[in-house]
Every structure is written in C-alpha cells, then in structure tokens.
Amino acid sequence: MAVVLGVNAVFHDPAAALVIDGEVVAAAEEERFTRRKHGKQAVPFATWELPEESARWCLERAGLSPADVDALAYSYDPSLLAPSGANAGIDVTADGWEPLRTLYAERAPLFLRTALPGIDPGCVRFVAHHAAHAASACLAAPYPTSSVLVLDGRGETASHLAGRSHGGDLEVLAAQQLPHSLGLLYEEVTEHLGFRRSSDEYKVMAMASYGSPVFLEELRRLVHETGDGGFRVEPIDWDGFVKRRLGDEEWTSEHANLASSVQVRLEEVVLELARWLHARTGDRHLTMAGGVALNCVANSRLAAEGPFDQVWVQPAAGDAGTALGGAMFVAQRLGDPVAPMPGAALGREWTDDELEAWLTSAAVAYERPDDIAAAAAEVLAANGLLAWFQGRSEYGPRALGHRSLLANPAHTDNLRRLNDVKGREQFRPVAPMVLAERAADIFEGGPLPSPYMLFVHRVRPGWTQRIPAVVHVDGTARAQTVERHDEPLVHRLLHEVERRIGAPVLINTSLNTDGRPMVDDPRDALECFGSAPVDALALGPFLIRRPPPGC
C-alpha cells in the first residue's frame, strides 16, 4: 500500500493530486493558490512551474509530510524525447522550447527537493503524458473495463492515444504522432479568431453556433482519418478562409462560419476515431480525457451517434487532470487496487468556525439563517445574483455547485448581466444546473445524468420560454444534473428555488471574473464579492448581503 503524489508541471495547468492505498484523497490546480490562471506567466517556460502550493496542501490534507511520499508521479516522460533511437532529429514542436522542457522534466527530482523539503528525489516516477491522461479516465471512471480515447494538443511525441483498459491494465491500440494534432488544430483557429490559444478554445465552440460550416469540404480534405486509428492534419492557411481577427476587432459571420466548420470537422474525426476503436474492442463504455474531451458539443455528438453505450469524460480532462492520472497510474503499478474517483469535489474546504473568523476579520456584516438553501433561494427568486461558496472546491474547469455564481434562469437579461459581471463576450452562453430527477422533463438529446457539465442537451420546446437565459442560440444547454445523495445542499437549494419560481433550474457559472482563476478560499470569495456587482454571498451557512446604495 502506497502514498503516491501526482504532479503536472508541463505545458500549462500545473496541479497536484494525492492517492493513498489506491483511494483519491485530494487534487487541486496550482492556479487556485497562486491566482495565475492556467499557471501562465510572462515567458513560456514559466508555465512549467512545479505545483508547490497545491502539492503541500494535498499532503497537509492527509496529515502527511513530504517524507511520507512513497512515489511521486510526474506526468511527462523525458526519456521519450531522448536524442537517440526513433526520435532522433525529429522537431516535434513549432515553438522551439522542447529541449528546455525536456531538461526541466529531467531535473524535476532536484527541483522537488527544494520545493518539498524532505521528499526523496529517488521516488520520482516519470509517466508518459498520454498514459497519465488515459489513467485519469479509465481508472477514475466507474467501469472495470472500458475503451479509452485521449485527444489533446500534444504529449511528448504524440497527440492522441486509443486503447483498452481491463483490470487496471492499459493496452495501447493506436497513437497519433506529432505534428498531426486535433488539439493544436483547434488552438490554431482559436488564435486566428482573436482569442488566446491553450486558454480560450471554449469561445470558439460557443461562436460556432452562430455560423454555418461553409468551409467543411475544404477542411475534410485537410483534416482526415487514416483508417488505422490515426489521422492527418495538413498545413492550413487560415487566411485563405477568413482574415485573421485581432483581439479588439468585432467578429463577423465569416469568423463564426470558420468556427462552425472546424467544430463540425472535429466532431466528425472524433466519431471516426471512436468507431475504429469500438471495432477493435467491442466495449460498451468509452472513457475520455485530454483537452479535446472538454469540447462538450463533440462529446454529445459522440454519445448520440457513436458506437458506445456510455461515454464518461474525466471532469479535469485537461492537463491538470494528468496529476491525478499519473498518481493513479503509479499506484496501480505498485499493486494498489485503485478505486474510481469519488467526484470532482477534491479541493480545499473550511469549517463553519473558520469561515466565521474570516468574516469577523473582514468586518463584514453577515447573518446565519436557519436554512442557507432557503435564504439563498429567496435572493435568487427576487432575481438577485448570488455567489455560492460551499464545501470542497472542484477539480477541473467546471463550477459544479461549490464555487459558483448563481442566477434565475427565467429572466432573459441574466445572460447579459452575468457576462458583464464576468467580463465575457456576449455570444457566450451560461449553463444550467437541474435536479437530476427532473432533468429528462426539461432536456433531451444528451446523456443523462450529467453531473460534470460535459455534454450539451436540447431544451424541450415547453421549457425554452421558461428558462430562456440558459438556452444557447442553437437551442441547447450544457446541463449539470444534481443528485440528492451526491450534493444534498445544492439539491435542496434547487427544490427551494422550484417552490418559488416553478422551475428546478438555476444558472450556474464559475465564481470568478475575467482573467482570474475560479474562487477557491474565503479571501478570494470576499474579494470577488466586494469587487463585482453581486447581490449576496452564501459563504457556508452564512449570508452576506450587499448594502443598499448610499449605505
């Protein structure tokens, strides 16, 4: 039985996770501590920072010290880029940083000795990037056997893995070598459309709904499957489709058409890759990870049209999730029976007394209602915006009812209000949370239940006018279903809301403002509440109301 600490410290989204005796104990992104979104700084290689604070917290959560760590899983294997053998002389990146990245990874044991005093540098186990992604899917999912699909920008030398997991062992059936990459393809169009690559890809997915795939045939020629589980992405002159958009320029229908075309082609290729994989495994379940797996529109099409009965996506599917996957991978290799992850609420939490001490220290007027769910529902029924801070923070990019900004979905203008509060473009939708037992009455066309907000669903005609703020321009919504046994407080909140507005639905978006990571600790929550036009903050059992103007 082993204590395994996993870290991601390459590319972006540094994170740490702790697995003890095969059980997931804690996981958190470094950005929640440092307040640097995605771990990005001014120079590229600074994104490879070690997740020092999140790693220390994971150990503290378990009452352990660095000396107690039996193995440290590092989710990148520099030996796969050794300047010899099959990879000799291959330039697998366009940015030229690969030699420095590899050197950084090779010296990780030395860096860790400084970052985590007391740890044994000899305990470091390098895990191939895509093996870590794959483990974060197949070992974390509730299936003993599954097909596994990993798609992202890049690992050491590849951008894709297709395989099968049985009894914890992973058989790799296909891997696409660089430079061909669906993730990098999406990053390129993200940058061409005036957004930040490796950060704003979800904006392209949202913009796609405003366009038509008029460039699809050309993209089918440039991006195509190879019939052996892989694909090719030919060099693309994006200016040949539409002129590059600068960040401060208005977007046009042509920009939306390009976004739509790339989105549809991505969906088609993912479907073909899944069909190839299913033909070789015959499995009922598909588990997925990698940044491309955060594309909820592609996930939904795969679930609807693909060959698998069920599709499960790691809620921290991006690179942060490789910290968890690496730890699970090593724990399994050490002989521990690895259990599925218990959910996404794996981060920090505070006791009621600790929260009250924060409020007292901040000299904030607050109340402690008999039922915080009922009091919060009153604010929301009156069309107030509510910051909601409860329990352990979420691991991954989705707010799932622990660090959320909530609003009434019955008022169309709340989409604009929330986008203004968060400093977001107005074409971007907001998502609903819904009682799991009522979800099928309101949504259709996507997997239900959907606890991690990783699929889109069509809103039933009778409900589009009742919850207009969460209905995207294409008639869909990225719903999160809430089960009583998993989320008793949020479930009760939705019941209280339904009593008041007649719908068991709330707008749920992440509690943060533009360019900042999701709120994580009480200080973050109070700062966000103090600076944003939010009507109330539910901090544990306490309710803080914004004073009326002039008070």
Structure description:
The protein is an alpha/beta fold and 551 residues long. It folds into three domains: 3-135 and 320-333, Nucleotidyltransferase, domain 5 (2-Layer Sandwich); 141-313, Nucleotidyltransferase, domain 5, CATH 3.30.420; 352-545, Carbamoyltransferase, C-terminal domain (DHBP synthase, Alpha-Beta Complex), CATH 3.90.870.20. The protein is 32% helix and 19% strand. The chain is built from 17 helices and 22 strands. It has helices spanning 31-34, 52-61, 98-106, 108-115, 129-138, 182-192, 201-208, 216-222, 253-281, 296-305, 321-333, 352-361, 372-381, 414-422, 439-442, 488-501, 522-531; strands spanning 3-8, 15-20, 23-29, 71-74, 124-126, 145-151, 158-166, 169-177, 223-225, 231-233, 285-289, 310-313, 386-389, 403-407, 431-435, 443-444, 457-459, 476-477, 480-482, 505-510, 536-539, 542-545. The strands form five sheets. The protein has a seven-stranded mixed β-sheet, sandwiched between helices. Strands 3-2-1-4-5 form a five-stranded mixed β-sheet, with helices on both faces. Helix 7 (201-208) crosses helix 9. The chain is globular and about 60 Å long. Mean pLDDT is 93; it is low at 41-46 and 84-94.
